[in-house]
Design goal:
The protein is mainly alpha-helical. It has one domain (20-189): Collagenase (Catalytic Domain) (3-Layer(aba) Sandwich), CATH 3.40.390.10. It has helices spanning 23-40, 61-79, 95-115, 125-136, 143-152, 158-161, 171-175, and strands at residues 82-84, 87-88. The relative contact order is 0.16. Bound molecules: zinc ion. Residues 36, 40, 97, 100 line the site of zinc ion.
Amino acid sequence: MQNALNFPAAILQAPYFDQNASDAMNYGGIGAIIGHEISHSFDDQGAQFDAAGRLRDWWTKEDGEHFRQASAALVAQYSAYEAFPDLKLDGQLTLSENLADLAGLAAAYDAYRVSLAGKPVTPDADRQFFLGYAQSWRDKERDAALRNQIATDGHAPAKWRTYTVRNLDPWYPAFDVQPGQKLYLAPQQRVRVW
Ligand SMILES: [Zn+2]
């Protein structure tokens, strides 16, 4: 198996990448996608393949144990999301992808801040970063398709993928998110796996 990440040209367009959008928006869009894919190389999926692409689990027992403990909070967070009155998301089924969203968004944010070296930072830069992320997940689907996705797809539906932001500290000052608001998480409840 090739140990590589391939980004087809077709994804390098809006809403993931727009050459007329700000850098902040693009880091929140395609930057988070690239970070997501890179992080799979280091998670429970990536653990199955070594650096040469061979099917060989390279994690130690301790690595696996730490990963299971750290990821339990993310399982609980996603399992609490209610798509319909009678249907919640499956935090275990979607764990790998939710982890990749979290790691990818955090890495994209760090990369964006690094990219600013020497450049003036606009006051709304962080807002644009998170808006870029949220807008990259705009979609619309029928209830039946959504139910099918929740039951069978390892990816959480798009709406809940945007909720990844509540685990990132910079999202709070960017939008002045306060305790009691729907997506607010106390600092110690924000999930940091990596
Ligand atoms: Zn993924």
